[in-house]
Protein backbone atom coordinates (compact mmCIF):
# COMPACT_ATOMS: atom_id res chain seq x y z
CA UNK A 1 0.00 0.00 0.00
CA UNK A 2 1.19 3.52 -0.83
CA UNK A 3 0.58 6.65 1.22
CA UNK A 4 -0.40 9.90 -0.51
CA UNK A 5 -0.96 13.25 1.16
CA UNK A 6 -2.48 16.41 -0.32
CA UNK A 7 -1.11 19.78 0.70
CA UNK A 8 -4.07 21.59 -0.91
CA UNK A 9 -7.28 22.56 0.89
CA UNK A 10 -9.17 23.28 -2.35
CA UNK A 11 -12.09 20.81 -2.46
CA UNK A 12 -12.21 20.79 -6.26
CA UNK A 13 -8.50 19.93 -6.40
CA UNK A 14 -8.72 17.23 -3.73
CA UNK A 15 -11.67 15.47 -5.36
CA UNK A 16 -9.82 15.66 -8.67
CA UNK A 17 -6.78 14.14 -6.92
CA UNK A 18 -8.95 11.29 -5.64
CA UNK A 19 -10.20 10.60 -9.14
CA UNK A 20 -6.68 10.76 -10.60
CA UNK A 21 -5.36 8.41 -7.92
CA UNK A 22 -8.25 6.02 -8.59
CA UNK A 23 -7.99 6.12 -12.38
CA UNK A 24 -4.22 6.27 -12.77
CA UNK A 25 -1.99 5.88 -9.72
CA UNK A 26 -3.47 2.83 -8.04
CA UNK A 27 -4.22 0.45 -10.90
CA UNK A 28 -1.73 -2.12 -9.64
CA UNK A 29 -1.49 -1.10 -6.01
CA UNK A 30 -3.49 -0.07 -2.95
CA UNK A 31 -3.44 3.54 -1.84
CA UNK A 32 -4.23 5.48 1.33
CA UNK A 33 -4.66 9.26 1.36
CA UNK A 34 -5.18 11.91 4.06
CA UNK A 35 -6.45 15.35 3.09
CA UNK A 36 -8.35 18.41 4.28
CA UNK A 37 -10.67 20.90 2.64
CA UNK A 38 -11.35 24.51 3.51
CA UNK A 39 -14.95 25.33 4.46
CA UNK A 40 -17.00 23.57 1.78
CA UNK A 41 -20.03 21.41 1.15
CA UNK A 42 -19.49 18.10 -0.64
CA UNK A 43 -22.66 16.61 -2.12
CA UNK A 44 -23.27 13.01 -3.12
CA UNK A 45 -23.35 11.88 -6.74
CA UNK A 46 -27.13 11.42 -6.87
CA UNK A 47 -28.16 14.46 -4.86
CA UNK A 48 -29.96 17.64 -5.81
CA UNK A 49 -27.45 20.29 -4.79
CA UNK A 50 -30.07 23.03 -4.33
CA UNK A 51 -31.94 20.85 -1.84
CA UNK A 52 -28.88 20.22 0.34
CA UNK A 53 -27.48 23.70 0.92
CA UNK A 54 -28.43 27.04 2.42
CA UNK A 55 -27.74 28.99 -0.76
CA UNK A 56 -27.84 32.43 0.87
CA UNK A 57 -25.31 31.44 3.56
CA UNK A 58 -23.11 29.65 1.00
CA UNK A 59 -22.99 32.71 -1.26
CA UNK A 60 -22.51 35.22 1.55
CA UNK A 61 -19.56 33.27 2.98
CA UNK A 62 -17.96 32.18 -0.28
CA UNK A 63 -18.26 28.47 0.57
CA UNK A 64 -17.57 26.22 -2.43
CA UNK A 65 -19.96 23.37 -3.21
CA UNK A 66 -18.51 20.35 -5.02
CA UNK A 67 -20.05 17.07 -6.13
CA UNK A 68 -18.09 13.86 -5.47
CA UNK A 69 -18.02 10.58 -7.39
CA UNK A 70 -19.60 8.49 -4.63
CA UNK A 71 -23.21 8.41 -3.49
CA UNK A 72 -24.51 9.18 -0.02
CA UNK A 73 -25.38 12.46 1.66
CA UNK A 74 -24.04 15.99 1.71
CA UNK A 75 -21.28 16.75 4.23
CA UNK A 76 -19.62 19.92 5.50
CA UNK A 77 -15.83 20.10 5.50
CA UNK A 78 -13.60 22.56 7.34
CA UNK A 79 -10.05 22.59 8.70
CA UNK A 80 -11.30 20.94 11.89
CA UNK A 81 -12.19 17.88 9.81
CA UNK A 82 -9.77 15.33 8.35
CA UNK A 83 -10.64 13.13 5.36
CA UNK A 84 -9.24 9.77 4.42
CA UNK A 85 -9.40 7.71 1.23
CA UNK A 86 -8.62 4.04 0.65
CA UNK A 87 -8.33 2.70 -2.92
CA UNK A 88 -8.07 -1.04 -3.38
CA UNK A 89 -9.16 -4.01 -5.49
CA UNK A 90 -12.77 -5.17 -5.15
CA UNK A 91 -13.66 -7.71 -7.80
CA UNK A 92 -16.88 -8.85 -6.12
CA UNK A 93 -19.19 -5.93 -5.28
CA UNK A 94 -21.49 -8.26 -3.37
CA UNK A 95 -18.77 -9.07 -0.85
CA UNK A 96 -17.66 -5.52 -0.01
CA UNK A 97 -17.23 -5.11 3.72
CA UNK A 98 -17.75 -1.59 5.05
CA UNK A 99 -16.43 -2.54 8.48
CA UNK A 100 -13.23 -3.92 6.95
CA UNK A 101 -12.56 -0.65 5.14
CA UNK A 102 -13.01 1.34 8.39
CA UNK A 103 -10.83 -0.99 10.47
CA UNK A 104 -7.49 0.89 10.03
CA UNK A 105 -9.07 4.08 11.41
CA UNK A 106 -10.82 2.28 14.27
CA UNK A 107 -7.60 0.48 15.27
CA UNK A 108 -5.52 3.66 15.09
CA UNK A 109 -8.00 5.43 17.38
CA UNK A 110 -7.75 2.63 19.91
CA UNK A 111 -4.08 3.56 20.23
CA UNK A 112 -5.23 6.93 21.54
CA UNK A 113 -7.64 5.37 24.02
CA UNK A 114 -10.70 6.09 21.87
CA UNK A 115 -12.84 3.00 21.33
CA UNK A 116 -14.88 3.62 18.21
CA UNK A 117 -17.02 1.26 16.19
CA UNK A 118 -18.19 1.05 12.61
CA UNK A 119 -21.97 0.78 12.64
CA UNK A 120 -25.08 1.50 10.66
CA UNK A 121 -24.86 1.79 6.92
CA UNK A 122 -21.78 3.99 6.73
CA UNK A 123 -20.88 5.52 10.11
CA UNK A 124 -18.09 5.34 12.65
CA UNK A 125 -19.25 6.34 16.12
CA UNK A 126 -17.97 6.79 19.65
CA UNK A 127 -20.28 6.73 22.65
CA UNK A 128 -23.24 6.31 20.30
CA UNK A 129 -22.48 9.55 18.44
CA UNK A 130 -21.25 9.76 14.87
CA UNK A 131 -17.93 11.41 14.00
CA UNK A 132 -17.29 9.79 10.63
CA UNK A 133 -19.51 9.38 7.59
CA UNK A 134 -18.30 7.16 4.76
CA UNK A 135 -19.11 6.54 1.11
CA UNK A 136 -17.90 4.31 -1.73
CA UNK A 137 -17.26 4.36 -5.45
CA UNK A 138 -16.82 1.12 -7.38
CA UNK A 139 -15.67 0.83 -10.98
CA UNK A 140 -13.65 -1.57 -13.12
CA UNK A 141 -13.01 -3.87 -10.17
CA UNK A 142 -11.55 -1.06 -8.07
CA UNK A 143 -13.03 0.39 -4.87
CA UNK A 144 -12.62 3.89 -3.49
CA UNK A 145 -13.75 4.17 0.14
CA UNK A 146 -13.57 7.61 1.68
CA UNK A 147 -14.76 9.20 4.89
CA UNK A 148 -14.73 12.25 7.10
CA UNK A 149 -13.28 12.42 10.59
CA UNK A 150 -14.92 15.23 12.55
CA UNK A 151 -12.12 16.20 14.88
CA UNK A 152 -12.75 19.84 15.80
CA UNK A 153 -15.38 20.95 13.29
CA UNK A 154 -17.42 24.14 13.73
CA UNK A 155 -20.90 22.64 14.12
CA UNK A 156 -22.62 26.02 14.08
CA UNK A 157 -21.11 26.78 10.68
CA UNK A 158 -21.94 23.25 9.52
CA UNK A 159 -25.56 23.68 10.57
CA UNK A 160 -25.84 27.00 8.73
CA UNK A 161 -24.27 25.70 5.52
CA UNK A 162 -26.41 22.56 5.38
CA UNK A 163 -29.61 24.18 6.64
CA UNK A 164 -32.16 24.46 3.85
CA UNK A 165 -34.88 27.12 4.15
CA UNK A 166 -38.35 25.62 4.49
CA UNK A 167 -39.35 25.84 0.87
CA UNK A 168 -41.23 22.97 -0.64
CA UNK A 169 -38.92 20.80 -2.74
CA UNK A 170 -40.21 17.92 -4.83
CA UNK A 171 -37.17 16.03 -6.02
CA UNK A 172 -35.89 12.69 -7.24
CA UNK A 173 -32.57 13.36 -5.51
CA UNK A 174 -31.43 11.48 -2.40
CA UNK A 175 -31.88 13.63 0.72
CA UNK A 176 -29.15 13.66 3.34
CA UNK A 177 -29.94 12.11 6.69
CA UNK A 178 -28.95 14.37 9.58
CA UNK A 179 -27.50 12.39 12.45
CA UNK A 180 -26.31 13.18 15.96
CA UNK A 181 -22.66 14.03 15.55
CA UNK A 182 -19.70 14.72 17.80
CA UNK A 183 -16.15 15.95 17.49
CA UNK A 184 -13.56 13.28 18.13
CA UNK A 185 -11.44 15.73 20.11
CA UNK A 186 -14.03 15.70 22.88
CA UNK A 187 -13.38 11.97 23.46
CA UNK A 188 -9.57 12.02 23.63
CA UNK A 189 -8.05 11.11 27.03
CA UNK A 190 -5.19 13.49 26.19
CA UNK A 191 -5.93 16.58 24.11
CA UNK A 192 -4.21 17.24 20.79
CA UNK A 193 -4.64 19.58 17.84
CA UNK A 194 -5.90 18.47 14.45
CA UNK A 195 -2.34 18.81 13.11
CA UNK A 196 -1.04 16.51 15.86
CA UNK A 197 -3.87 14.06 15.16
CA UNK A 198 -3.02 14.04 11.45
CA UNK A 199 0.64 13.37 12.29
CA UNK A 200 -0.36 10.53 14.62
CA UNK A 201 -2.59 8.91 12.00
CA UNK A 202 0.12 9.21 9.35
CA UNK A 203 2.79 7.68 11.56
CA UNK A 204 0.56 4.88 12.87
CA UNK A 205 -1.00 3.86 9.56
CA UNK A 206 2.24 4.00 7.59
CA UNK A 207 3.86 1.75 10.21
CA UNK A 208 1.00 -0.69 10.79
CA UNK A 209 -0.03 -1.01 7.15
CA UNK A 210 3.60 -1.03 5.93
CA UNK A 211 2.97 1.81 3.49
CA UNK A 212 5.49 3.38 1.16
CA UNK A 213 5.33 7.13 0.54
CA UNK A 214 4.26 8.53 -2.82
CA UNK A 215 5.20 12.08 -3.82
CA UNK A 216 3.20 13.71 -6.59
CA UNK A 217 5.30 14.69 -9.59
CA UNK A 218 4.83 17.81 -11.71
CA UNK A 219 3.15 15.64 -14.34
CA UNK A 220 0.77 14.24 -11.72
CA UNK A 221 -0.16 17.74 -10.56
CA UNK A 222 -0.81 18.91 -14.13
CA UNK A 223 -3.12 15.94 -14.71
CA UNK A 224 -4.99 16.61 -11.46
CA UNK A 225 -5.42 20.27 -12.34
CA UNK A 226 -6.85 19.31 -15.74
CA UNK A 227 -9.46 17.10 -14.00
CA UNK A 228 -10.24 19.88 -11.52
CA UNK A 229 -10.84 22.41 -14.29
CA UNK A 230 -12.78 20.00 -16.47
CA UNK A 231 -15.11 18.61 -13.80
CA UNK A 232 -14.93 19.61 -10.16
CA UNK A 233 -14.61 23.37 -10.71
CA UNK A 234 -17.54 23.51 -13.12
CA UNK A 235 -21.11 24.60 -12.49
CA UNK A 236 -22.31 21.82 -14.81
CA UNK A 237 -20.92 19.09 -12.53
CA UNK A 238 -21.64 20.65 -9.15
CA UNK A 239 -25.11 22.05 -9.86
CA UNK A 240 -26.20 21.08 -13.36
CA UNK A 241 -25.78 17.38 -12.59
CA UNK A 242 -28.65 17.55 -10.09
CA UNK A 243 -31.79 15.47 -10.76
CA UNK A 244 -34.93 17.19 -12.00
CA UNK A 245 -36.80 18.91 -9.18
CA UNK A 246 -39.51 21.41 -8.40
CA UNK A 247 -39.55 24.12 -5.79
CA UNK A 248 -42.18 26.43 -4.37
CA UNK A 249 -41.35 29.56 -2.37
CA UNK A 250 -43.43 32.22 -0.67
CA UNK A 251 -42.01 35.50 0.61
CA UNK A 252 -43.57 38.71 1.92
CA UNK A 253 -41.40 41.65 0.94
CA UNK A 254 -41.80 45.20 2.37
CA UNK A 255 -43.29 47.53 -0.18
CA UNK A 256 -44.08 44.68 -2.56
CA UNK A 257 -46.44 42.25 -0.86
CA UNK A 258 -46.60 38.47 -0.88
CA UNK A 259 -45.05 36.61 -3.81
CA UNK A 260 -45.26 32.87 -4.37
CA UNK A 261 -43.12 31.34 -7.11
CA UNK A 262 -43.07 27.80 -8.49
CA UNK A 263 -40.24 26.44 -10.63
CA UNK A 264 -39.24 23.25 -12.34
CA UNK A 265 -35.51 22.74 -12.73
CA UNK A 266 -33.71 20.16 -14.87
CA UNK A 267 -29.93 19.88 -15.31
CA UNK A 268 -29.66 23.02 -13.19
CA UNK A 269 -31.75 25.10 -15.62
CA UNK A 270 -35.25 26.54 -15.20
CA UNK A 271 -37.75 24.65 -17.36
CA UNK A 272 -40.96 26.16 -15.97
CA UNK A 273 -41.81 29.24 -13.86
CA UNK A 274 -45.00 30.73 -12.43
CA UNK A 275 -45.76 33.33 -9.78
CA UNK A 276 -48.79 34.61 -7.92
CA UNK A 277 -49.55 36.74 -4.86
CA UNK A 278 -51.05 40.00 -3.67
CA UNK A 279 -48.38 42.18 -5.30
CA UNK A 280 -49.18 44.82 -7.95
CA UNK A 281 -48.05 44.59 -11.57
CA UNK A 282 -49.34 45.57 -14.98
CA UNK A 283 -47.99 42.67 -17.02
CA UNK A 284 -48.48 38.88 -16.72
CA UNK A 285 -45.76 36.64 -15.31
CA UNK A 286 -45.93 34.48 -18.43
CA UNK A 287 -43.47 36.95 -19.97
CA UNK A 288 -41.03 36.32 -17.10
CA UNK A 289 -41.44 32.57 -17.57
CA UNK A 290 -40.38 32.90 -21.21
CA UNK A 291 -37.37 35.03 -20.29
CA UNK A 292 -36.20 32.54 -17.63
CA UNK A 293 -36.73 29.41 -19.73
CA UNK A 294 -33.50 27.33 -19.89
CA UNK A 295 -31.62 29.83 -17.70
CA UNK A 296 -29.00 28.42 -15.33
CA UNK A 297 -29.93 28.70 -11.68
CA UNK A 298 -27.02 31.02 -10.86
CA UNK A 299 -26.78 34.75 -10.27
CA UNK A 300 -24.85 35.85 -13.37
CA UNK A 301 -27.07 33.85 -15.71
CA UNK A 302 -30.23 35.26 -14.11
CA UNK A 303 -28.90 38.83 -14.33
CA UNK A 304 -28.16 38.37 -18.01
CA UNK A 305 -31.59 36.86 -18.73
CA UNK A 306 -33.33 39.74 -16.95
CA UNK A 307 -31.08 42.52 -18.30
CA UNK A 308 -33.68 43.85 -20.74
CA UNK A 309 -36.68 43.31 -18.46
CA UNK A 310 -38.43 46.15 -16.63
CA UNK A 311 -39.26 44.12 -13.52
CA UNK A 312 -41.30 47.00 -12.07
CA UNK A 313 -43.97 46.29 -14.70
CA UNK A 314 -44.45 42.76 -13.34
CA UNK A 315 -43.77 43.21 -9.61
CA UNK A 316 -44.21 46.78 -8.44
CA UNK A 317 -41.51 47.82 -5.97
CA UNK A 318 -39.36 44.70 -6.51
CA UNK A 319 -35.73 45.12 -7.56
CA UNK A 320 -33.89 42.66 -9.78
CA UNK A 321 -31.53 41.81 -6.93
CA UNK A 322 -34.48 40.99 -4.64
CA UNK A 323 -36.07 38.89 -7.37
CA UNK A 324 -32.88 36.93 -7.98
CA UNK A 325 -32.39 36.34 -4.26
CA UNK A 326 -35.99 35.10 -4.10
CA UNK A 327 -35.20 32.56 -6.82
CA UNK A 328 -31.84 31.43 -5.44
CA UNK A 329 -32.11 31.65 -1.63
TrEMBL record:
Residues 26-205 form the BPL/LPL catalytic domain. Pfam families: Lip_prot_lig_C, LplA-B_cat. One of its GO terms (biological process) is protein lipoylation. It comes from Sporobacter termitidis DSM 10068. GO terms for cellular component: cytoplasm. Pathway: Protein modification; protein lipoylation via exogenous pathway; protein N(6)-(lipoyl)lysine from lipoate: step 2/2; Protein modification; protein lipoylation via exogenous pathway; protein N(6)-(lipoyl)lysine from lipoate: step 1/2. The keyword Cell membrane does not apply. Keywords: ATP-binding, Ligase, Nucleotide-binding. It catalyses: L-lysyl-[lipoyl-carrier protein] + (R)-lipoate + ATP = N(6)-[(R)-lipoyl]-L-lysyl-[lipoyl-carrier protein] + AMP + diphosphate + H(+). Signal peptide: none annotated. This is lipoate--protein ligase. InterPro entries: aa-tRNA-synth_II/BPL/LPL, BPL_LPL_catalytic, Lipoate_protein_ligase_C, LipoylTrfase_LipoateP_Ligase. One of its GO terms (molecular function) is ATP binding. Its EC number is 6.3.1.20. The keyword RNA-binding does not apply.
Amino acid sequence: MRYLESTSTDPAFNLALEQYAFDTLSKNDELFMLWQNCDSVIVGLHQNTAEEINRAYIDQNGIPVVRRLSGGGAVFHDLGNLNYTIITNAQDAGRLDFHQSCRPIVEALAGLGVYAEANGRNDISVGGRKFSGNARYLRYGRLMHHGTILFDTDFERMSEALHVPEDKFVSKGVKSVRARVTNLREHLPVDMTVAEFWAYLRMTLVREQKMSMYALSARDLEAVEAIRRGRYATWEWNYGQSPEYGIKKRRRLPGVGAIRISMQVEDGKITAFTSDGDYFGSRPCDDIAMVLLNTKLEEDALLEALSAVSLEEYYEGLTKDEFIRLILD
